[in-house]
Design brief:
Helix content: 25-40%
Strand content: 15-25%
CATH class of the largest domain: Alpha Beta
CATH topology of the largest domain: Rossmann fold
Strand order of the largest sheet: 6-11-7-8-9-10
Distance between the termini: 46 Å
Shape: globular
Order of helices and strands: EHEHEHEHEHEHEEEEHEH
Number of strands: 11
Number of helices: 8
Largest sheet: 6 strands, antiparallel
Number of domains: 2
Structural class: alpha/beta
Length: 258
């Protein structure tokens, strides 16, 4: 007998920007999710009982019942307590901490684009299945943690360390790429990978390790570097790395058409 096809996990996406939501929805479908879009949180809550999603992705900019107000309402019902709420916003120094404090399970930055958002959501759900939750990082002031790059994307790790103002060293290994990134109160202080140091090293590591099927990372709190070599902020460096990835992908596409 042939096995029945598995039912794709369902994501409830709440955002008033229909065009952006459509792009995020398409990226999520490419990652294997079924997507339901709603422009209103109040209406979306009425659907939960009879159409329960695997996760809720909600914008922080909604005028009524945004992502920060949603977790207490969803998790008040024991039947819905297992559904993670993922905040989606425009970034900011305290965006991730605010999301976690309001009860959200994770935070994604709209500025990173639909494909990266979808990949981060997929990685979050995979890591949750493996028993690791990003919010655990907030209490890890004296405990090292490790993980697989196939279960949590590297930009997501960097964002969480930055937003939760961690101090320590993040070591990354993926294939021939080895690198270390030092954080000081959430700021990237120093980085090195092979012959590269500073901003170039951060961009290099993220570019070649993002979305890696094999590889690992390890964060050791309290480790510090003596010399500062990184001058730009984490988000700007991540955007540079992802921009280079897009340019490389477009270049390959153009070569294929030539």
């Amino acid at each position: 007998m042939s096995s029945q096809p598995s039912i794709p996990p369902k994501i409830l996406l709440i955002d008033t920007n229909v065009f952006f939501a459509r792009r995020v929805g398409a990226a999520l479908k490419n990652e294997g999710f079924d997507v339901i879009h709603s422009t209103q949180s109040a209406y979306a809550l009425t659907m939960l009982e009879y159409d329960t999603p695997s996760a809720i992705v909600c914008s922080t900019s909604l005028r009524e019942m945004n992502a920060h107000q949603l977790p207490p309402l969803v998790h008040a019902d024991p039947k819905m307590a297992h559904i993670p709420v993922i905040a989606m916003g425009e970034g900011g120094d305290h965006a991730l901490m605010e999301a976690f404090r309001s009860g959200c399970a994770d935070y994604v930055d709209k500025r990173l684009g639909p494909e990266v958002i979808a990949a981060q959501i997929k990685s979050f759900l995979l890591s949750s299945q493996e028993g690791f939750h990003p919010v655990q990082m907030l209490g890890s002031s004296d405990t090292a943690f490790t993980g697989s790059l196939s279960h949590l994307d590297l930009p997501g790790v960097v964002q969480m360390l930055a937003h939760s103002r961690q101090t320590g060293a993040l070591s990354v290994n993926s294939g021939v790429i080895d690198g270390v990134i030092f954080f000081e109160s959430g700021n990237i202080f120093h980085a090195e990978s092979g012959d590269l140091i500073g901003d170039d090293a951060v961009v290099h590591v993220v570019r070649y390790c993002n979305g890696a099927e094999h590889g690992s990372y390890k964060f050791i709190p309290g480790e510090s570097a003596t010399t500062r070599t990184v001058l730009r902020g984490p988000t700007e460096l991540l955007l540079d790395a992802l921009r280079e990835l897009d340019e490389a992908a477009n270049g390959k596409g153009e070569e294929g058409l030539a």
